[in-house]
Specification:
Order of helices and strands: EHHEHEHEHHEHEHHEHEH
Strand content: 15-25%
Shape: globular
Number of helices: 11
Largest sheet: 8 strands, parallel
CATH architecture: 3-Layer(aba) Sandwich
CATH topology: Arginase, Chain A
Number of strands: 8
Helix content: 25-40%
Bound molecules: manganese (II) ion
Radius of gyration: 18 Å
Strand order of the largest sheet: 2-1-3-8-7-4-5-6
């Protein structure tokens, strides 16, 4: 790597220098149409080229085929499109597991945040087979900690973290045949500023660590992310990061399905990602909830592609 400029040396852990890109154009986990176009928007934003420029080998494995809502029926309004979400999350999980088992680094592009149900199942299965402990850093404006009892909408994207911790519908929690995928003490939620009333109960019951935007205001993004990574790198072997782009302030990330004011600034978001890049245990990354129909000239996808680059080792100097 001697001929590679300093800012292009890949820093993913365990010598994982091949990245596998997988699209998950899932548009069934949320009410607002459009997030199914997220993978295309990220490809148009040059996500592959940006990672190649960092020195990685990158394969784009294409999209998991997902049905559109118009061809589906809702049988349970508290778990909308459950059959299709279970089915396609299983396909995604198999593809991500295959990538991990080959020693590659999976980058899963949503679609809505149900993408993380499959990719976390795979990360967990991969670790389980090797006696390793997985952890997750969930970056999001929302907590995604509903179950079918607490959900105000029936949208499964709002249940993705709960499911990974073993709460809720069994067909989701037991994807790949085991549950939970994560221990709550190895799950960290950051950037949160909108939590549903009944969702609070499950967050407390689960006992996961939540760092809200108020924590970032008070202590600064650097202190918050360093504390989380210190704990994760100490206690787990593989860190999976999942970025819901609505964590970023809607003035910068306009193209998201559920914008909430008061999000991460441009530099806070990059600082978080740059700090993750240095942790040495990053094992997988998801990005979710880009909605090109609400965006302005693909800015949100470009921002997301930049954040992915920061997470995978792009540095200013
Ligand atoms: Mn989310």
């Amino acid at each position: 790597m001697n001929d590679v400029p300093e800012d292009r040396v890949p820093t993913t852990p365990r010598g994982k220098h091949q990245i596998d890109i997988l699209g998950f154009p899932m548009d069934l986990g949320a009410d607002r149409r459009g997030v199914g176009m997220g993978p295309s928007a990220l490809r148009i934003a040059g996500i592959r080229r940006r990672l190649v420029d960092l020195g990685y080998q990158v394969r784009d494995l294409g999209d998991i085929p997902v049905e559109i809502p118009e061809s589906q029926t809702i049988s349970n309004p508290r778990l909308k499109f459950l059959d299709e979400v279970v089915d396609k999350s299983g396909l995604l999980a198999s593809a991500v597991l295959d990538s991990l088992d080959r020693g590659h680094f999976p980058l899963a592009m949503g679609g809505d945040h149900t993408v993380s149900i499959g990719s976390l199942a795979a990360q967990s299965a991969h670790c389980r087979a090797r006696g390793l402990r997985p952890g997750v850093l969930w970056i999001d404006a929302h907590a995604d900690m509903n179950d079918e009892q607490t959900t105000p909408s029936g949208n499964i994207h709002g249940m993705a973290l709960a499911v990974s911790l073993g709460f809720g519908e069994e067909r989701l929690t037991r994807l790949l045949g085991f549950s939970p995928k994560l221990e709550p003490e190895h799950a960290f939620l950051v950037g949160v500023r909108s939590i549903d009333q009944d969702e609070r109960k499950l967050i407390r019951r689960a006992g996961l660590t939540v760092r809200t935007m108020a924590d970032i205001d008070r202590r600064g993004a650097a202190s918050v992310i360093e504390e989380i990574l210190e704990s994760l790198t100490r206690d787990v072997d593989a860190i999976h990061v999942t970025l819901d782009v609505d964590a970023v302030d809607p003035s910068l990330a306009q193209g998201v399905g559920t914008p909430v004011a008061g999000g991460l600034t441009y530099r806070e978001a990059h600082l978080i990602m740059e700090t993750i890049a240095g942790c040495g245990k990053l094992s997988g990354l998801d990005v979710a909830e880009i909605n090109p129909t609400l965006d302005n000239r693909n800015r949100t996808a470009v921002l997301t592609a930049e954040l992915v680059s920061s997470c995978l080792g792009k540095r200013i100097l």
